[in-house]
């Protein structure tokens, strides 16, 4: 009962954050196919007319889409406030920064807090196994939605760095530069 209460509370707390409903089918590496699933995200800065100033930032396992500023759910500072923001290394006065909560995450994207259509109950521990490749493929839909054909850069640390490696492996022509920090040196097919 406490698990269901937690999941219900997470769903209500994430109602007012940016979400894109992905209408296309996404085949997960585990063989399951998902469709019409939410991908929560946040953006910082302004996308220029040519859409050439976008930086996709991937978060670590303990992160979420709230890179900088105050997280509206936890009320804490974003996880990369020392690097992203006006006048920072990733200057939001110059760049348009995008970060999505990974699928399987708990800040608004498709995850264990969703209702399983087969059982009409929360997925909870029956949620499908999600890989780094699944996370990256889902975030590609967000770029398509925003009309961004090529990113200025992709960046991330830890699990975010693994997503960087997977992104440049899946979509080698979609980013001009990649930067990772504290991450594995080589992607594995199912990281």
Task: Note the topology.
Layout: H1 2-13, E1 19-22, E2 26-27, E3 33-34, E4 37-44, E5 54-58, E6 84-85, E7 90-91, E8 96-100, E9 115-116, E10 121-122, H2 132-146, E11 151-157, H3 159-170, E12 175-181
Parallel strand pairs: 5-8, 5-11, 6-7, 11-12
Antiparallel strand pairs: 1-4, 2-3, 4-8, 9-10
For the CA atoms, what is the radius of gyration? 16 Å
- Give the overall form: globular
Segments where pLDDT lies below 50 for 5+ residues? 1-7
Numbering strands along the chain, what is their spatial order in the largest sheet?
1-4-8-5-11-12
| Count of DSSP-assigned helices | 3
Helix content, binned percent:
10-25%
Report how far apart the termini are.
32 Å
What composes the largest sheet? 6 strands, mixed
Tell me the fraction of residues in β-strands, as a range: 25-35%
Sheet/helix structural class? alpha/beta
Oligomer: single chain
| Tally of DSSP β-strands | 12
Average pLDDT metric? 89
Order of helices and strands: HEEEEEEEEEEHEHE
Summarize the structure in words.
It is globular and about 50 Å long. The chain contains three helices and twelve strands, in the order αββββββββββαβαβ. Helix 2 crosses helix 3. It is of the alpha/beta class. Strand 2 (26-27) and strand 3 (33-34) form a beta hairpin. It starts with a helix and ends in a 10-residue tail after the last strand. The strands form four sheets. Strands 1-4-8-5-11-12 form a six-stranded mixed beta sheet. Strands 2-3 form a two-stranded antiparallel sheet. Strands 6-7 form a two-stranded parallel sheet.
